[in-house]
Amino acid sequence: MSIRIGVYPGTFDPITLGHMDIIRRGAKLVDRLVIGVTTNISKSPMFTDEERLDMVRRECAGVDADVVVTGFNSLLMDFAEQQGATMIVRGIRGVTDFEYEYQLTGMNRQLNDRVDTVFLMADVALQPIASRLVKEIALYGGAIHKFVSPKVCEEVMERVERIGRKGD
């Protein structure tokens, strides 16, 4: 009997409560959920690859499911194939996310039609949360505790102190 494996990819810079919602719900759809932590070359991460991997592993430790956290630096469909995945799990916050993800899914299907993409709508209370906005709020001295776990909040604020706040 084969197990159903899904991949939830992202930069997770930092991991938010919205990400955790998708992880918990996505893990219910598969026997094993592989969290693929990658560096998006079009983004400037606040945390290193290793820091993000450690952060995601720690945050996922309490998830009651078979969740594996690993880094990757390749095409998503190649990574999914390497993991034995038949499903990509993606979180959608709104129409803008859907339009981008719809295009990405079409391209991914051209690369590997053996892997399907499943979209999960973010919980209504968590829909506005985006890592990019969390970082921006923190860099301008705003409170981010409603968007990330206490430990992630602490790590983001420590990083902001090290690199310097905007407007100072």
Describe this structure in words.
The chain is of the alpha/beta class. The chain is built from six helices and five strands. Strands 3-2-1-4-5 form a five-stranded parallel sheet, with helices on both faces. Strand 1, helix 1 and strand 2 (32-37) form a beta-alpha-beta unit. The longest helix is centred in the middle third of the chain and has 17 residues, at 95-111. The chain starts with a strand and ends in a 5-residue tail after the last helix.
Write the topology of this structure.
Elements: E1 5-10, H1 17-27, E2 32-37, H2 49-60, E3 67-71, H3 76-83, E4 87-92, H4 95-111, E5 116-121, H5 131-139, H6 150-163
Parallel strand pairs: 1-2, 1-4, 2-3, 4-5
Tally of distinct domains: 1
Global mean pLDDT: 92
Structural class assignment: alpha/beta
Per DSSP, what share of the residues sits in E-state strands of 2 or more residues? Answer: 15-25%
E-strand count: 5
Helix amount:
40-55%
Backbone CA Rg: 16 Å
Q: Remind me, CATH topology?
A: Rossmann fold
* Strands side by side in the biggest sheet: 3-2-1-4-5
Shape estimate: globular
CATH superfamily heading: HUPs
CATH level 1 name: Alpha Beta
* Low-confidence residue ranges: none
| Secondary-structure element order, N to C | EHEHEHEHEHH
Distance between the termini: 59 Å
Q: Please give the CATH architecture.
A: 3-Layer(aba) Sandwich
Number of helices: 6
How would a crystallographer describe the biggest sheet?
5 strands, parallel
